[in-house]
Amino acid sequence: MNLSDISHICFPCWHNKIVMGTMRNLSYRFDLSRLAAFIAVCEESSITQAAQRLGVAQPALSATIRRLESDTGATLFNRLPRGMEITEAGKLLLERSYEIFSLVEDAEQRLLSVKDEPHGEIAIGLPPSAATVLTYPLLTLLKRKYPRVAVRLVEALSGYLFDWLQGRELDIAVTFNSSSTESIVSWPMLREEIMLIGLCDSIEGLPSPYPLDRLDQLPLIVTSSRHGLRQNMENQLALAKRKLNIKYEIDAGHQLVKMVSSGEGFGIFARSAFHAEIAAGKVSCSPLRPAYTRDVCICHRRSASADRTVQLVAEEINALAKSLALDGTWPAEIIDTS
């Protein structure tokens, strides 16, 4: 190993020692309390008035200024019979002192903003129909507004999401027709109309609105019986002593959409679930008679009410959903809960 190799290895150690020593010396000579006292004397042009302003004894303030002059090796004031006159060295130090306090104040504000900025992980559950219109704008919005929040998005049918919320697997969930419970807070955001959806040619040949009590005449692709929409449809037909004509039972939102869009059967969904397919002219929809609606709700656990991040994200989802309804992206009616 030659001399250049040794100097290359050792230099960082020497450098660190020099830097740390310099910082210790500077922190002693330019203590913030000394600089604050110096600024007060400069602004008041009087030791007496500066001492009164700072609430300290005049001899103590005079001693502080003398120590500052001794440590800096510069005369900062000319002592006059009626006050203190700042020197050129004093003017230079005053200018730099203002800059130092400005930097300290800026650092304090930045630290406070970081402390108060929402952070942590949050798990959000969306049903497939809501995820179709909400996922992209929601994720980009949260990334922009709350970059320190790590978002985990879960897509599943509403019934599952509510259970997972209760089981603490989710922090927030968008569900349908949910009511508040002892452990869950739920409030409605939007009201969607449920439609009969199928291939355009198939829908055109049917009466519109389509009678609910004639759903047994159509091959349907539905969710399992644990979900509210399926239960309500079955209850409606039971009044007419009929049953749903179920061709496929699927608890997977994208597969339900795919099967209906391929012409395998009809679906009973909100238009938002088929947002892209309707826009592309793949499927069409018809209202039901009597009309059937559901409330789109946002839910979180009551224990999370004090969690600022959960509250802010829930408010963002609520505002975004209503904004999408206003511009027609989400075909739904806004529910005013004010």
Q: Span from first to last CA?
A: 78 Å
Rg is 35 Å
Mean pLDDT: 86
| Sheet of most strands | 9 strands, mixed
Give the percentage of residues in beta strands: 15-25%
Query: Helix content range of the residues, please?
Result: 40-55%
Structural class: alpha/beta
Low-confidence stretches: 1-15, 17-23
Instruction: Count helical runs.
Output: 12
What is the H/E string? Answer: HHHHEEHEHEHEEHEEHEHEHEEHE
Shape: rod-shaped
- Number of strand segments: 13
Overview of this structure, please?
This protein is 50% helix and 22% strand. Helix 2 (32-44) packs across helix 3, helix 2 crosses helix 4 and helix 6 crosses helix 12. Strands 3, 4, 5, 6, 7, 10, 11, 12 and 13 form a nine-stranded mixed β-sheet that branches. A two-stranded antiparallel ribbon has the order 1-2. The chain has a two-stranded parallel sheet with strand order 8-9. The chain is of the alpha/beta class and 338 residues long. The chain contains twelve helices and 13 strands. It has helices spanning 3-29, 32-44, 47-54, 58-72, 88-116, 128-145, 158-166, 200-204, 228-239, 253-261, 275-279, 308-326; strands spanning 77-80, 83-86, 120-126, 149-155, 172-176, 184-199, 210-211, 220-222, 246-249, 267-270, 283-289, 293-301, 333-334. The longest helix is centred in the N-terminal third of the chain and has 29 residues, at 88-116.
What brief labels describe this structure?
alpha/beta, nine-stranded mixed β-sheet, 12 helices, 13 strands, 50% helix
